[in-house]
Design a protein that fits this description.
mainly alpha, two-stranded antiparallel ribbon, two-stranded antiparallel sheet, about 45% helix, globular
């Protein structure tokens, strides 16, 4: 490894560090996951020369750190029993201690006692849904175990369509076990369609109504850029640069510690935290998992941001068929999956396989190995020259091809590119792609085990509307299954951090007191780099999984006590202004004119930060973090008698904040 000055260093870190990017290495498809940290397994399927497995290795998934970070920070040095506070935090977290033992029992902690076969014998006898194609992707393979049976027991199995989302919300009846309020559609909508509700989101939904707010979110171009987005567009200087510009300025940028692939990740983080175009950013994140190209891959340093800008963001609220065709013409994808090395005389199957297995119809869903081979032959000729797409007719295989239901004489090399595009459009509009897309969207927005009725309805819209994503989303939002799925999604680690920042309304500008020794990057860019490193520690930084399947989207993939407690400690960093490159409000100012008693003050805080009122047991546990004798009637000042930061962190440890 080469020594490099830390481009994010400022007076908070004040240190250089050895570069861990691993850009020159290759781990399976990934090109090296920036060293050997928790950034994905980097494994390749065994049948393609790797160590396998392709979809799920429980020892290799991004499960965060295995240790338990100390939750006993200096804010309570006077407390006589640090262990008591740790126990209280775990209790507040809804049984987080159970997560140490794995995901199956932990299902009961987030989804209710009736959601686990061990406590509900009927759930053990409930068969898995075996109708329809046998999808074998990472989300569904993870949910085929005991935990999946339990969550399925707690998930609606059927539903109805209505004319508008608001009508569906009114008709929905939440029957699942959950700690969340069962009849608060505004909170539910804000939690599912954003990276975390804040005061503005809740206010906007109440003002515009459910239908009006959704309509506006469906048209992101009509929503003004926020201050944070404007700063990201200006200060992340490489994001909007063309390949030619980046190539011409690369040496100068390298000397300043500025790298386009790094800035691409930071750009995504900024958008998730600061944008008011929240549904759009949710869809960008979804497609960066669904049509995944690793953020850091040898050879893509100057092109990965363009893939995000010109493929994912361009079509995230458009037609998937256009996104898929554009992706197969982009150098970042072609390099990532070795298409540029595939010729008529030496065929590489990587991209052809993933086009079927991950990006369209889904694994083992209507194709076989002969289809993969035929697709790889057809796709020859697509390549990259000087980091730009090029079609090379002299390298294109000529001859009849048949892939699933697509066939073509493919009679001449000059026409090969047009045949390839026709094949891509066939795949993107295939009914099996419709169902696979619907399954993945419903898993992201509704439930880890989405109801078949909902998936069927969304898939039908996908076919009818020729892959139009807003139409599919509107079908989802206009069905009762969406509104009855309260409490059925748990935030992944990155979503937890983002939701915490949004709940605290952390600002993109640095305080006047902030000073930096780094003149090459703005305070905001440095702060985003700090957040990026924390997300890497969680194993969930945007786009950074090295393998092409993208991050898992179900709860059991992320059940790590170490990660959970690490999240709580990071929330404390945000609460107390530890990332000093951002504007933050002192916790004692979160509530204007706070109530004078502990119980009422806690209620005001939970209503503002997580949009709920807690049950008495959790209220008592939080109050006892401040003092073992504190009750709801105890008089308190604005600092909660010195315990305000710990109280706010405890609020963020509740299942109510972990749940979407």
């Amino acid at each position: 490894m080469n020594e490099r000055y830390d481009p994010y260093a400022d007076s908070y870190y004040e240190a250089g560090y050895e570069d861990q990017t691993g850009r020159s290495g290759r781990a399976g498809y990934g090109g090296g996951p920036r060293g050997a940290g928790p950034r994905g397994n980097g494994s390749m399927p065994a049948d393609r020369g790797g160590s396998g497995p392709h979809f799920y290795d429980p020892n290799a998934m991004p499960r965060g750190r295995g240790d338990l970070p100390d939750i006993d920070d200096e804010d309570f040095d006077e407390e006589p029993s640090p262990w008591r506070r740790r126990a209280a935090m775990l209790a507040i977290g809804g049984g987080a201690a159970a997560l140490i033992g794995g995901g199956a029992y932990a299902v009961t902690q987030f989804f209710g006692k009736g959601a686990h076969p061990a406590t509900d014998p009927a759930a053990a006898d409930a068969p898995a849904d075996t109708t329809g194609p046998a999808y074998v992707d990472q989300n569904q393979s993870l949910m085929n175990g005991e935990a999946g049976l339990g969550i399925r027991k707690n998930t609606p199995t059927t539903g109805s369509s209505f004319g508008t989302p608001n009508d569906a919300a009114k008709a929905a009846v939440v029957k699942a076990n959950t700690v969340l309020p069962k009849k608060d559609p505004v909170r539910h909508l804000a939690s599912r369609l954003t990276f975390g509700p804040n005061t503005k989101v809740i206010s906007d939904i109440n003002k515009l109504g459910i239908n009006g707010w959704i309509d506006k979110q469906m048209k992101p171009e009509t929503i003004a850029l926020t201050r944070g987005e404007q700063k990201a567009d200006t200060e992340l200087v490489t994001y909007s640069m063309s390949y030619t510009q980046l190539k011409a300025q690369r040496d100068d940028l390298d000397k300043k510690g500025i790298h386009a692939d790094d800035q691409n990740v930071r750009y995504a983080i900024a958008k998730q935290i600061f944008s008011d175009r929240q549904l759009f950013e949710m869809m960008v994140d979804f497609f960066n998992d669904y049509l995944h190209v690793a953020a850091f891959h040898d050879g893509n340093e100057l092109t990965r941001a363009s893939f995000d800008r010109d493929v994912i963001r361009k079509y995230a609220m458009g037609d998937y068929v256009d996104m898929f065709v554009a992706a197969n013409k982009h150098p970042a994808l072609l390099v990532y999956l070795d298409q540029q090395d595939s010729t008529k005389d030496k065929i590489n199957e990587n991209l052809a396989r993933e086009n079927l297995e991950l990006y369209t119809v889904g694994a083992f869903n209507g194709y076989n190995e002969t289809d993969v081979r035929q697709a790889a032959m057809l796709q020859t000729g697509r390549g990259v020259r000087d980091n730009q797409y090029v079609y090379r007719p002299e390298q294109h295989y000529v001859g009849p091809v048949k892939i699933m239901g697509f066939s073509h004489p493919n009679g001449d090399a000059a026409g090969g590119e047009a045949v390839q595009e026709a094949y891509f459009r066939y795949l993107a509009l295939h009914p099996n792609t419709a169902r696979y897309m619907a399954q993945n969207l419903a898993t992201r927005f509704v439930s880890d085990v989405p109801p078949k009725t909902l998936v069927d309805a969304m898939a039908k819209t996908y076919v009818d509307k020729k892959s139009n994503i807003p139409a599919v989303l509107m079908t989802m939002l206009s069905r009762t299954e969406f509104w009855e799925s309260v409490g059925q999604k748990v935030r992944r680690p990155g979503e937890y951090l983002t939701a915490t920042y949004r709940a605290l309304d952390i600002g993109a500008d640095a305080p006047a007191t902030f000073t930096s020794s780094n003149t090459n990057m703005s305070p905001m860019v440095q702060g985003l780099g700090d957040i990026m490193r924390k997300l890497e520690e969680f194993g969930h930084a945007p786009m950074e999984l090295p393998t092409p399947n993208g991050y898992a989207d179900v709860y059991v993939a992320w059940t790590s006590a170490g990660t959970m407690v690490n999240q709580w400690n990071d929330a404390y960093t945000a609460i107390t202004g530890g990332r000093r490159q951002f504007t933050w409000a002192k916790p004692e100012t979160l509530i204007a004119n706070p109530p004078a008693t502990a119980g009422a003050y806690l209620d005001a805080l939970t209503k503002k930060l997580i949009n709920v009122t807690l049950d008495n047991d959790r209220k008592t546990a939080i109050l006892h973090i401040v003092s073992p004798t504190m009750t709801a009637a105890t008089p308190v000042d604005a600092t909660f008698n010195g315990g305000i930061a710990a109280v706010v962190r405890a609020i963020f440890a509740t299942p109510h904040h972990h749940l979407r």
